[in-house]
Amino acid sequence: MRFLKWAVRELGFTRSSDYQKQYINETNIRTAVYMSFIVLILEFWMIIRYVDQRPGRTFLEYFDGEMNYLILFSSGLILILFAFRHIREYKNFILGKILSAAVIILDAAMMARYVMKNKADMSVSGLLLGMKYLILLMLLAVAYHVYECFFIKKNIRSDIYGQMMNILFGVICLGFGIETSLYDISKQRQILCFVTMMIFVACMLIWKPYVSVLILGVAFLRFYSLWVPSLIAIDEAGGKAKDGDTINLFTFWIVLVMVSISIYHQRRLEATKDEGLIQANEALNRAAIEDDLTGIHNMFYFNQESVEVLNDPDTDYTKKIFLFLNVENFKTYNDQFGYQEGNEYLKKLALMIRDTFEGEPVARQSDDHFVVLASTETALERTEAIRDRIHGARQEIYLELKVGGFKPRSRDADPRVAVDCARYACSLIKNKYGVNYREYDDDVDSRFHKNQYIVNRIDSAVEKGHIKVYYQPVVWSETRELCGLEALARWDDPTYGFLSPGVFIPVLEEYRQIHKLDKCIFEQVCKNMREAMDAGRRVVPVSLNFSRLDFELMDAVGVLQECVEKYNIDKDMLHVEVTESALADDDGILSRAVETLHKEGYAVWLDDFGSGYSSLNVLKDFRFDVLKIDMKFLTNFEKNEKSRIILDNIIRLADGIGMMSLTEGVETEEAAKFLTGAGCGRLQGYLFGKPMPLEELHAKINDGTIKVSDRLI
Ligand code: C2E
Ligand code: CA
Ligand code: CA
To answer: Looking at 457-513, which runs of residues are DSSP E strands?
Structure first.
């Protein structure tokens, strides 16, 4: 059984992969170039010699006498044309058509001549047999001519044609070898021609081993059967040629078969190795240009492709637009259905976007963000189609598609910058109900540059003291006396003037630079407090705003500790404010930080309570000392009866779970009175003082406008 398997494999009955087939075919074709070249030269030389040795003959006599050489010469010519054509793809290779047509005509002429000369003495089958090589040559020439005229344009793979050409050529060569060996003058020497042709066909053209065995077997038997009579003649004349030559001949046959089998396996092994390398390479290439999750292109490929599209002289770049697509609310999808399903949806979405913008560069940038280099004429219509399908995706969840657009201003626009601009335009319509598309225009441009300015200048702003702390009073509701201050950052810029946190905080957070600002604020607050104490002033606790990212980008607690130690400040003089939204999607970093802050002795306040949708969960999972009720409950306070009921309940809720409450944004006496009555301990808002520089605060305390309470906690 094992032997059988081995034999099956060794004889080449196992299936080869397409790549292996192609590899061997290509090797054959390349070999065919050399072989046919040798044949051409050799036969040409033979013809010349023939003419040279037989002066005074007529043209037709030469024609008859040269038949075999002419056939071999022509088949060599056909093969070299084919090989040449296969290796080099010329658009219009007219020479190939002319030459193959010429061979067809020549061959037909030879056939006609043969028939005319012999038709009197031969039957039809005898004529056909006599013309066997002419017929083979005709097949070869016609096959090539058809290939040249009909298939080449359609780019049909020439594997089968290659095999066919090789087989026909092989048979012609072998036939030529056998006949020349047998019928030429000096028999002993002419055997060389047979041997050469055999090696030629068996080893140079790589056949499957069983085909080699078959071809060589048939050719040998044929040669042997024709040769025996002449050997017998020699034996009868007294020589002992038959046995010796028969043994030599068969030894040669076996060696040749072995060599050709071994060459086949060697080539196949090379092909296998090559295929492995190519597959590995392809996988690497794919990984380099494909997005892992969705399988559509990644940004690396997108950037390259976009450069190509824009640089193409046929492209009108003013009709192109970079689109940035963002699926809003996708996080809720993940929360509700799980990551797995979220990923599945992203894949579907990616394919849908790719298909909608078929033929245009499309890629996934990250998360639920996609980019396209679209045509301006169809861009909006197509995004509209995608939006419709997104709306219909799930009834339980409302997903929205927000799109930012950027029109390249020149052919050599950098796609990375263009995508950044489109993304920025898109970020401006985030959470804006009913606005789904924003193009990057001059207005957006100036905002964008301002943002870039902010990101690029934060370091120097910190260094040069452009970041300032403003303090806003917090008062006891009962006495309206100062019990604390909130530190709020201001950026006093030499170019843009006074920047409000509403402008620079979101930018610094987006570009993950916010910790630089906060560190600077901690430092200033501690420094101010130390100076006030040294000057003999009474100080009140200051609350510091922490961004969620502070805990990721730096050791926020450690940095705070350092400041406290450096300026020797009491820990209960500093409160940490953490916003509710920061805690909503906490992955553990923040909850651990809150824990540590408590342990270290800092009070932690929950900022902006009620501004998000997860308020109650946050209360359940974390412990806070003070609940800062968001100022949105006070908008339209006078007219809105519901606000009072809600505020009243929040304050009672806080009390119930052992937290103190503070309401921010108090602007009217009416609101202040209501909140005092409802039991809210602390108040903060313009009614008691806007955020102000330290000097102004000191002045107000000095002149009695602000009275510092005796009770601070
Ligand atoms: P926040 O922490 O909720 O700060 C309260 C904001 O409400 C401040 O705006 C304050 O000026 C404003 N405000 C106070 N009372 C009233 C009032 O009666 N009426 C109205 N309409 N507004 C009032 P500001 O200073 O512009 O700060 C905005 C936000 O920027 C802050 O909201 C805070 O989240 C963030 N922020 C400010 N400074 C820093 C900081 O140093 N670090 C960090 N990470 N964030 C900061
Ligand atoms: Ca705050
Ligand atoms: Ca707040």
So the answer is: 467-476, 482-493, 497-499
Q: What is the mean pLDDT of residues 294-311?
A: 94
Per-residue pLDDT tens over the stretch 18-43: 888 888 888 887 787 787 888 889 88
Angstrom distance (rounded) from CA 680 to CA 647: 9
* 681/345 Cα distance (integer angstroms): 48
Q: How far is the CA of 161 from the centre of ligand 3 (A)?
A: 79
pLDDT of residue 215: 86
Task: State pLDDT tens for residues 113-168.
Answer: 899 988 888 888 999 988 888 999 999 999 888 888 877 666 555 567 777 888 88
DSSP letter, residue 624 = -
**Other CB atoms closer than 10 Å to residue 128's CB: what's the count?**
13
Integer CA distances (angstroms), 431 to 326, 401, 422, in order = 11, 11, 17
d(CA 321, CA 381): 13
Distance of alpha carbon 250 from alpha carbon 259, whole angstroms: 14
Q: Ligand 1 within 6 A of 500 CB?
A: yes
Measure the CA–CA gap between 285 and 221, rounded to whole angstroms. Answer: 52
Whole-Å CA distances, 275 to 12, 284, 290, 329: 18, 14, 21, 46
Task: Spell out the domain ranges in the chain.
Answer: 2-280, 299-440, 466-702
Residue ID of nearest Cα to ligand 1 atom 12: 665
Whether residue 571 contacts residue 601, with contact meaning beta carbons closer than 8 Å, is answered with: yes
Strand ranges (DSSP E) for 361-452?
362-366, 369-375, 400-406, 437-439
- Tokens of residue 222, six digits: 């044929």
Rounded-to-integer distance, Cα 672 and Cα 679, Å: 11
Same fold, 299-440 and 466-702: no
CATH of region 466-702 = 3.20.20.450
Q: What's the number of CA atoms in the CB half-sphere (13 Å) around residue 409?
A: 7
Ligand 2 centre and the CA of 608: distance in Å?
7
pLDDT band at 185 (very low <50, low <70, confident <90, very high): very low
φ/ψ of 88, rounded to 5, equals -110, 125
- pLDDT tens digits for range 662-676: 999 999 999 999 999
What's the pTM? 0.58
Q: What is the fold of 299-440?
A: Alpha-Beta Plaits (3.30.70)
Shortest-distance atom of ligand 1 to CA 667: 18
Angstrom distance (rounded) from CA 261 to CA 433: 75
Determine contact, residues 422/324, Cβ cutoff 8 Å. Answer: yes
Tokens 């802050």 label which residue? 597
Residue 664 β-bridge partners: 684
Q: Which of 466, 635, 664 to mutate to test the pocket of ligand 1 (most atoms within 8 A of CB)?
A: 664
